[in-house]
Design goal:
Blueprint lengths: L4 H5 L1 H8 L3 E5 L3 H9 L1 E2 L2 E2 L2 E4 L1 H6 L11 H14 L4 E4 L6 H14 L3 E5 L1 E2 L14 E2 L2 H14 L6 E6 L8 H13 L4 E4 L7 H13 L4 E4 L9 H7 L3 E4 L2 H20 L3 H7 L3 H10 L3
Parallel strand pairs: 1-4, 1-12, 4-5, 5-6, 6-9, 9-10, 10-11, 11-12
Antiparallel strand pairs: 2-3, 7-8
Helix pairs in contact: 3-5, 6-7, 7-8, 8-9, 11-12
Bound molecules: sulfopyruvate and magnesium ion.
Sulfopyruvate binds next to helix 4.
Length: 294
């Protein structure tokens, strides 16, 4: 049973130690978990899964503002854990109330999750990719650091990790703010730092990683190259990234195919064309499910 919690939980730390970088893909339900688990090409595969708040919410038709509560998020996580063996990183949004956050850490550890990422926003959290179209309010860094400190004190296992996600660039703050926050969160015991940007040129990310690694060469870093997608993994690694997350690509590709199939059937008044162009066979899906790795 390769998906027992104690076996799965430690896999992420091992991979970070053993590999140049760790490649992570979003999974938002059992089926997309199976796709991440089983997709292999040219000897490559995904190392871990990202349980995105954006995608978990979007598949429910809901906004990414923490309206999908943690109890619901846990159900999604459980569904994915049930049918996969790869390590799991949970997007924990702001982490919620401190008292709830420390409990959630233990629940995730028990389930076999390897890491949670929490971001330093407060108030009604909005998705970072909305950029300057909405207002993002940052939490005081000391308040957020306390959440990390309490989370680290609450965890029961050695291998579970808490990543601090810095939203300075998303909120229109500068490099100095981001680096100050990183220092504060590392001192509070964060196992690693996620840095985010909605700019396409990747320069905020490259500059931050370089400066951070000069001061803290051992800190584990995590990036989400959704907008700066043109950079290849090797390049992101050279900037200083240790974990690279494709955070929403299965949601977006599924949406595209679903929309096209729905439109085509309306247009043709039959399913034949859509079935050929935009749908895999039921055999393929049923085959994947029955092969489900444990
Ligand atoms: C998510 O996938 O939910 C994230 C990454 O938090 S982003 O949507 O880019 O903010
Ligand atoms: Mg999120």
């Amino acid at each position: 049973m390769k998906n027992l919690p104690e076996i799965r939980r430690k896999k992420l730390k091992e991979k970070i130690k053993q590999q140049d970088y760790v490649r992570v893909m979003e999974a938002s339900n059992g089926l997309s978990g199976l796709i991440v688990e089983n997709t292999k090409t040219e000897g490559k595969e995904y190392d871990a899964m990202w349980i995105s708040s954006l995608c978990d919410s979007a598949f429910k038709g809901m906004p990414d503002n923490e309206i999908v509560d943690f109890t619901s998020r846990l159900r999604t996580i459980e569904e994915i854990l049930e049918v996969t063996t790869k390590p799991v990183i949970v997007d924990g949004d702001t982490g919620g109330k401190l008292e709830h956050f420390v409990k959630h850490i233990n629940t995730l550890e028990r389930m076999g999750v390897s890491a949670i990422v929490i971001e330093d926003k407060k108030g009604l959290k909005q998705n970072s990719l909305l950029g300057n179209k909405v207002e993002h309010t940052l939490e005081e860094k000391e308040v957020f650091a306390e959440k990390i400190r309490k989370g680290k004190a609450a965890q029961m296992t050695e291998e579970f990790m808490i990543f601090a996600r810095i939203e300075s660039f998303i909120a229109g703050k500068d490099m100095a703010d981001a680096l100050e926050r990183a220092k504060c969160y590392i001192q509070a015991g964060a196992d690693g730092i996620m840095i985010h940007s909605y700019k396409k040129d990747g320069q905020e990310i490259a500059g931050f990683l370089k400066a951070l690694k000069e001061k803290h060469p051992k800190v584990i870093t995590m990036v989400v190259p959704t907008t700066y997608a043109e950079f290849r993994e090797k390049e992101l690694q050279e900037w200083g990234a240790n974990i690279i997350i494709y955070a929403n690509h299965l949601l977006r590709s599924a949406y595209l195919a679903m929309k096209k199939a729905a439109e085509k059937i309306l247009e043709e008044e039959r399913a034949y064309e859509a079935g050929n162009e935009y749908c895999v066979s039921m055999e393929e899906i049923l085959g994947l499910i029955s092969e489900g790795k444990k």
